[in-house]
Amino acid sequence: MASEAAADEASETYAEFIETVERLSNVSHAGMVLGWDQEVMMPEGGTPARSKQRSALSTLSHELLTSDEMAAMLDELETEDLSDEREAVVREIRRKHDRAARVPEDLVEEISQVSSEAMPVWQEAKAEDDFESFAPTLETLVELKREYAEHIDPDRDPYEVLFEEYEPYLGIETAEKVLQRLRDELVPLVEAVRESDADLATDTFDGEFDTDTQEELARDVLDTLGYDWDHGRLDTAPHPFSSGNQFDARVTTRFNPEEPLGALMATVHEFGHATYTLGLPREQYGTPLGQSRDMTVHESQSRLWENHVGRSGAFWERFLPTVKERFPDQLSDASVDDVYEAANEVYEDNLIRVEADELTYHMHIVVRFEIERDLIRGDLDVADVPERWNDKYEEYLGVRPDTDSEGCLQDIHWSHGDFGYFPTYSLGSVLAAQLYDAAEDEIPDLEAKIREGDFEPLHEWLTENIHRHGCRYTTPDLIREATGEEYTADYFLDYVKSKYGDLYELGDDE
């Protein structure tokens, strides 16, 4: 009888624990909706109120997560014999609780308010090519995030602590190792590509492309890939992003009349994020089992759909007729080979990360990673960021920005205080190749299915192996479950060397 009573008590504690966790999750999702609205629909004058609203929600989340009641429930549950799923929920909340409990509430509130107020400052600075007007805000955010990291663990590298906000399980050593390997192996590949005499149809999308028609085409591609419009929507934003949960996963993109392919690929990219979110188990909404694994896994989904599907010849065999219907004057004579070559061009002088090709993209990430790491560690002053940025672009990419707008002001991340986020883009690209290889092994004739517009088998494989697990597994365990192997950059490097070797006729040496 005593054991039954103890079991009942543990069950009651877990039920109370889950109720608090779900409340915490709902507060977080409310904050996400406010953030989406600020970037997509809010009038410019709404910032003072919005910053206070988001700050209040951040403070409330912090209070719920760090309360004495939460600590007591975690302590009790960790002594119980829990199921694997319940153990995973406790593990995830414990990790967040322990980090958050070390950070004062007033600091959390200040970071939220400053980052909310920073966005319009960054937007204006970018529009006016005026880094100096953004520099004081950036300096404040750097100082606040250093203080945040110091509270969590004063004895560790502050950048490592911040990196774990976005990827808590792979480790900074893995990130540095992968980024170093990409730099070592991609730079010579890019140089070989640029020296190649291959004549690709890189002018296929030259001309003017009406942005309203581009939006119609973006909706076409979402229809083709299987986006669930009952649980999502498409809007425009200065910086494309996806936001939401398994009941409401929204995507945004942006349009340039001279860059229709950029908008299309950005839409496919954000679709990858949204389809992951929509694939999370609905019955677990509000708990870690119904939440996505961290940013490496999330980015793997967007990169898989953008690069391994959206830039493939098989996809363009299916989708090119739709593109021609929307833009008959510009693309009536374009072949699948023409569009495939244009979609996979390695640019000579690209300065903008979100417009970068699949190869040079990772050098854009390395630049940001090295600069933000030095900022947080105190090895670089904010005032010196533009020059350091330009020097690294010249060293790694062979180009030098003429303006800060196309240089260090191009990304929104630092205005959000998101230091440590950038490495997950490359980590996710690497994982995308590993996952796609595993999917190809298990889905018969996957390329043929893509050519026929049958994306459901790939959706199902990703849902079965990634989406439905939520945060049940740590990142390394999830990768092993999905692929049977440890996380590795081998598949990505083999993929790009083969693909671009063929495109640019490099032979076997590269």
The separation of the N and C termini measures: 70 Å
Residues in β-strands, percent: under 5%
Kindly report the average pLDDT value.
95
Question: Under CATH, the topology of the largest domain is which?
Answer: Neurolysin, domain 3
Total number of beta strands? 3
The Rg value, from CA coordinates, equals 23 Å
Low-confidence stretches: none
Helix content: 55-70%
- Give me the number of helical elements: 21
Shape: globular
Description:
By secondary structure, the protein is mostly helical. The protein has helices at 2-40, 47-66, 68-77, 84-101, 105-128, 131-152, 158-163, 172-195, 211-225, 260-278, 295-310, 313-326, 328-331, 336-343, 361-377, 385-397, 423-442, 446-451, 456-465, 475-483, 490-503; strands at 234-236, 242-245, 248-253. It has two domains: 2-156, no CATH class; 172-503, Orthogonal Bundle (Neurolysin, domain 3), CATH 1.10.1370. The chain contains 21 helices and three strands. It has a three-stranded mixed beta sheet with strand order 1-3-2. The longest helix has 39 residues, at 2-40. The radius of gyration is 23 Å and the shape is globular. The termini are far apart. 41% of the residues are buried. The model has no long low-confidence stretch (mean pLDDT 95).
Provide tags for this entry.
2 domains; mainly alpha; 510 residues; three-stranded mixed beta sheet; Neurolysin, domain 3
Helix and strand arrangement:
Elements: H1 2-40, H2 47-66, H3 68-77, H4 84-101, H5 105-128, H6 131-152, H7 158-163, H8 172-195, H9 211-225, E1 234-236, E2 242-245, E3 248-253, H10 260-278, H11 295-310, H12 313-326, H13 328-331, H14 336-343, H15 361-377, H16 385-397, H17 423-442, H18 446-451, H19 456-465, H20 475-483, H21 490-503
Parallel strand pairs: 1-3
Antiparallel strand pairs: 2-3
Helix pairs in contact: 1-2, 1-3, 2-5, 3-4, 5-6, 8-21, 9-10, 9-12, 10-11, 11-17, 12-14, 15-16, 17-21
